[in-house]
Design brief:
Length: 169
């Protein structure tokens, strides 16, 4: 089994990997984005020996394989993630963030869902009216909040893993 943790891994959902919520141990994990703490474009695949040893050096060759600066940056980012308790902060602040969002009484909100600091607000669709998540993302942006529309009616909120209570409030 392979889990795709490119968006959900490295503390985003309150655990090191989203699969940890279900106590799943995949044979391989695909990861990226947060792997270098946002400093450099880095991605990676980790897996059990019985899979990884099927490949020889350079079998997966690409231009950026093993970039020393990217590897050093990624090592420092993961070390910082662990030492500063960012997974736990994501879990605690994510629960606070979600509970505060759920307090908003709006006829536009169908549901607030998420794990850790990976939260989505689903916009209520009315019959005959197409909901455009991008429209809502632009509205958030006007208030200095960066979001991403996912699908047609969900806006994703992913604050930094170092966010604190006063910033959420």
């Amino acid at each position: 089994m392979v889990t795709d943790e490119i968006q959900t891994g490295l503390g985003r959902t309150g655990y090191m990997f989203a699969a940890d919520h279900e106590e799943i141990r995949p044979d391989m994990i695909v990861m990226g984005k947060a792997l270098s703490g946002g400093m450099l474009p880095v991605s990676g695949v980790v897996g059990d020996d019985f899979i990884m040893k099927l490949m020889e050096p350079s079998d997966d060759g690409n231009t950026f394989n093993g970039n020393p600066l990217a590897m050093a940056t990624s090592h420092a980012a993961i070390q910082t993630l662990v030492e500063e308790g960012m997974c736990e902060n994501s879990k605690v602040m994510g629960a606070l963030f979600k509970s505060e969002l759920e307090k908003i009484q709006s006829p536009l909100i169908k549901e607030v869902r998420g794990r850790g600091l990976f939260v989505g607000i689903e916009i209520k669709a009315e019959e005959g009216i197409k909901v455009d998540g991008n429209h809502f993302a632009k509205m958030f942006f006007k208030h200095n909040i960066l979001t991403k529309a996912t699908h047609d009616q969900t806006v994703r909120l992913t604050p930094p893993l170092v966010i604190n209570e006063s910033e959420i409030m």
